[in-house]
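seq:
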Amino acid sequence: MRIGIICPYSLTLPGGVQMQVLGLARALSRSGHPTRVLGPCDGPPPDPNVTPLGNSLPAIANGSIAPVAPDPSCQLRAIRAMRDESFDVIHLHEPLAPGPTMTALLVRSAPLLGTFHLAGGSLAYDLLPRATRFLANRLDLRVAVSPDARDTARDALGGSYELLYNGVELTPYQAAEPASTGGPTVLFIGRHEPRKGLGVLLDALARLPETVRLWVAGSGPETAALQARTADDPRIEWLGTITDSEKIARLKGADVLCAPSLRGESFGIVLLEAMAAGTAVVASDLPGYRNVARPDLDALLVPPGDSQALAGAIDRVLSSASESSRLVEAGHVRAEAFSMSGLADHYLQRYERIAVATRPKRG
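struct:
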């Protein structure tokens, strides 16, 4: 089966959807199914099986900035690529994001499966209900990555959705060497914007022992203000945007991965990555994170925005080797249950189903 996967977001910029697209394509290719990814790229394509469709433009979505490509030249490249590749099935991630996924819905050159990641509402759903429902009805099968994402899509678009959680590639985490640390270390990975809760983590750091260090990966609109606010704290290392290989090394080196988000998380992929790396997880108690982490079993979850509770949970892990080991062991088992190879098998079953269902009947 020849599979096309289309991503609306720039594949050369960090993001949860992009990571899922690229990881799934690699897993499908390893299973013997030629897979090509189409999407915008703001630089050299990240993998050999990527067809770049042009540069992206920043757009506000779900309280964040989404690097999409709605320009006509990108759509023409997408149409040409779909025609030239003759895919047996096309998999659209965030099918109603502006750009090539929406174009694929209009052109519909092969059976279409759409995966919905967004949780918490969409301006497009609110402003263009008839248009978005029309486009969604062109999908042969709809999948959501979490109950929150399913409910968001179903409330706005109607229809039925199968639930398939995101996956994590395990091998890179098992093979990587950990980054060295100078003492107990907490890692934050994410965009520096209000909903990600980095400010709450910085408040929590002030309550922790002087020996605790903090690595902060990523950037965003709050970076400068947060750096200025903590300029006198030498324990914080601002890493900026990091590569996938550095992210894995930092995850393996850190003692705790902290995800202090306040809202708007449909699935906690960064939690799975930490579990795959053998790192204990402390996170906000959000429905999206509970899709991955069972409270007090796979991770310690605290009320969103509560810096005192966050500091207490981090200290609980750092001060108890047995607690840390317990969380790491449970996390390994949990990450295995969300392997990307397993997710690829689930999607293959659905690709085959819609390919058969849409095949023209003879006679």
